[in-house]
Amino acid sequence: MIESLLVANRGEIARRIIRTARRLGVRAIAVYSEADADLPFVTEADEAVCVGPANPAQSYRNVEAILAAAKSTGAQAVHPGYGFLSENAEFARTVEASGLIWVGPGADAISAMGDKINARNLMAAAGVPVAPGTTDPAADLDAAVAAAAEIGYPVMVKAAAGGGGMGMGVANDEAALRTEYDKVRSFAERMFGDGSVLIERYFPRVRHVEVQILGLADGRVTALGERECSVQRRNQKLVEESPSPAVSPELRARFLAAAVRAGEAVGYRNAGTVECLLVPRQRDFDGDGRASEEFFFLEMNTRLQVEHPVTELVYGVDLVAEQLRVAAGLAPGFDPDALAPRGHAIELRINAEDPKRFLPGPGAVTTWNEPAGEGVRVDSGYVAGNTVTPFYDSLMAKLIVTGATRAEAIERARAAVAHFEIAGPKNNLPFFAELLTNEEFLSGDYDTSIVSRMR
């Protein structure tokens, strides 16, 4: 096993990685910005190094400072968490060129999946279903208009280098396309340094379902079930659950097989997620009266996902521990041929944002009391006395609940939300209290527009 691990991240994910590292006897090293000096992940690490001021470009995205911290502390490996440098292929290459172990997929796999057009084409070649769309970037507005005419409206205009729900727009006709194309291209150039744009068919009523994969040290790729991620605001997830209430055993088998093919197509190692759109075929019903469905590849996240705990709790696998085992060249700590879901898990992302418009609301934390009890887990980044600053993502904690059934998990989630006390920053706990009594959500028959209908 790896002996020492530098965690190149912050907040709840750094704290969560450190927890598993220390359980395994791995020396955990934190890096932190000046703004985060008082956060729990800093004090819970075996060693911590300040890598710069609050600005992420000068701290958590500062490759030179992070590698200097690894060298000064004698770190053997680097875990990037999610966000920041986690899907930066050049960072992965630089880490390995420095003689360190990279706890993540290879740089080539990150590069291959980082460009949405390239990823779509690779997946299509591997037999993974992809939505109708362009196979090359739309070079200019005329090319985008021609592509949309062939694909059929409505269409999604997407930044090829985008991610995290950013750099996307929907066009219902050519006039809207002309506006969205310029908007997305400009945003992509500014945010990602790459203005390449792709055009895809847009499906107004879809579910967002993803599959957790793990590329093992021996070259095999295995799938650890699916997660439902359709409760979103601004194309960004708020709630995840596993198993998906929309996925039948037959559909699950197809989902998992496609995800494994996706991983094999790029020689995937370590943890990753294959994200898909699940589209009901409204006019085609199977024998039990449910609409039969098809799914399309959306993208692959070449890192550990925010929502990985629901998979851990349903499948009984510590994904961070498995990431470390793969990086060390060790066999998995579970039997890949005996994976089966047990019970149901739901994750709620507790953000520092108002519960109506979901606008950021940072501030000093004056009260922080977490719920506890059977089937309740909290992965948090803050305690009372800390300050949620405006420099980073608004995620404060993840509340994860489990139950023998979905109904039991929802009941425990209601109680846990009611007992979670946060004062100081604005928070979205009232939204979750509302969601957990929403008839559409309770039925399990919801899609990515559920929050829009609630608001």
3D architecture notes:
The longest helix is centred in the middle third of the chain and has 19 residues, at 174-192. Mean pLDDT is 94; it is low at 283-291. The chain has 455 residues and is an alpha+beta fold. The protein contains 15 helices and 20 strands. The protein has an eight-stranded antiparallel sheet with strand order 13-12-9-10-11-14-19-17. It is globular. It has helices spanning 11-23, 40-44, 63-73, 89-97, 107-114, 116-125, 141-151, 174-192, 249-265, 308-315, 319-327, 406-419, 429-435, 439-443, 450-454, and strands at residues 4-7, 27-33, 47-52, 77-79, 101-102, 155-159, 168-171, 197-201, 207-215, 221-233, 236-242, 270-285, 291-301, 344-351, 363-364, 367-369, 376-380, 387-388, 395-403, 421-423. The chain has three domains: 4-103, Rossmann fold, CATH 3.40.50.20; 132-201, ATP-grasp fold, A domain (Dna Ligase, domain 1, 2-Layer Sandwich); 207-454, D-amino Acid Aminotransferase, Chain A, domain 1 (2-Layer Sandwich). Helix 2 (40-44) links the parallel strand 2 and strand 3 (47-52).
